[in-house]
């Protein structure tokens, strides 16, 4: 029936292959077939069509999974690393195809959502979601109140001015450094590190304590747990999805 058809990249996302954007890239790269024929971007498929990625047939829709991982230092935020470094998926269940919601660089620790819910992941990563990301940051040197105000109001980076952010000094001491809480509602590449460099205080340590209000304070580095139903609904509500 016509009303059961959908674009092929959406079907792939619902099956947990990748986010919609990632699935569209797979189609564009010619890695997806429909009934044995290479798929085209935007092609409509129905429930009786046989989809395959890289020659591997897709199973039916996978059960949704979502986990909160306390990412440790030295682990990369990708499903596969060509250099053979440990990835954020290594210790997670492998009964479904998972991928991280966004990235933390290899030296950054903290909260990372990992899921096979392509629609939820795509919306959370979209700039319009404004999902808050809370960081505990150690900056080199003594950071003045004026610099805190600069960080709070926005600093000029090579890709434009940052949005206003919550920035507060932490009651935590470090020789030669200053701990701050920085909460962002945008997600540019290495944004906190670049903000520190822009104000003359490079980042020495960076830990994301919360993502969209979900924190890792009770998880040791490297440990993970499934999201609770309440947390899943909270994430969905933040981006206009029922979960």
Would you spell out the secondary-structure blueprint of this structure?
Layout: E1 6-7, H1 8-14, H2 20-28, E2 32-34, E3 37-38, E4 44-45, E5 51-53, E6 56-57, E7 66-71, E8 99-100, E9 109-115, H3 118-125, E10 133-140, H4 145-153, E11 156-157, E12 160-161, E13 166-174, E14 177-184, H5 191-198, E15 203-211, E16 214-215, E17 224-226, H6 229-238
Parallel strand pairs: 9-15
Antiparallel strand pairs: 1-4, 2-3, 2-5, 5-6, 7-9, 7-17, 8-9, 10-14, 10-15, 11-12, 13-14, 15-16
Helix pairs in contact: 1-2
Tag the structure with descriptive keywords.
243 residues; elongated; 21% helix; nine-stranded mixed beta sheet; alpha+beta; 17 strands; four-stranded antiparallel beta sheet
Architecture overview:
The protein starts with 5 loop residues before the first strand and ends in a 5-residue tail after the last helix. Strands 7, 8, 9, 10, 13, 14, 15, 16 and 17 form a nine-stranded mixed β-sheet that branches. The chain is α+β, with helices and mostly antiparallel strands. 21% of the residues lie in helices and 30% in strands. It is built from six helices and 17 strands.
Count of extended strands: 17
- The level of helicity is 10-25%
The ordered H/E elements are EHHEEEEEEEEHEHEEEEHEEEH
What is the SS-derived class? alpha+beta
N-end to C-end Cα span: 26 Å
Mean pLDDT: 91
How much β-strand is present in the residues?
Answer: 25-35%
Q: How would you sum up the major sheet?
A: 9 strands, mixed
The count of helical stretches stands at 6
Shape verdict = elongated
CA radius of gyration: 20 Å
């Amino acid at each position: 029936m016509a009303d059961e058809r959908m674009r092929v990249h959406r079907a792939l996302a619902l099956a947990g292959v990748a986010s919609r954007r990632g699935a569209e890239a797979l189609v564009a790269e010619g890695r997806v077939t429909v009934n044995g024929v290479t798929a085209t971007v935007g092609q409509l498929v129905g429930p009786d069509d046989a989809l395959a990625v890289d020659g591997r047939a897709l199973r039916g829709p996978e059960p949704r999974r979502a986990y909160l991982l306390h990412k440790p230092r030295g682990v990369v935020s990708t499903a596969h690393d060509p250099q053979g470094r440990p990835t954020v998926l290594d210790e997670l269940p492998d009964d479904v195809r998972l991928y991280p919601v966004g990235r933390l660089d290899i030296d950054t620790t903290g909260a990372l959502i990992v899921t096979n819910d392509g629609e939820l992941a795509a919306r959370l990563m979209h700039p319009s979601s404004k999902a808050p990301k809370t960081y505990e940051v150690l900056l080199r040197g003594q950071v003045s109140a004026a610099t805190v105000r600069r960080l709070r109001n926005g600093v000029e980076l090579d890709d434009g001015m940052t949005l206003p952010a919550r920035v507060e000094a932490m009651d935590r001491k470090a020789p030669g450094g200053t701990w701050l809480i920085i909460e962002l509602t945008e997600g540019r590449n290495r944004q906190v590190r670049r903000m520190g460099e822009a104000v003359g205080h490079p980042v020495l340590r960076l830990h994301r304590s919360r993502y969209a209000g979900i924190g890792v304070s009770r998880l040791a580095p490297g440990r993970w747990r499934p999201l609770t139903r309440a947390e899943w609904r909270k994430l969905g509500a933040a981006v206009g999805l029922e979960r």
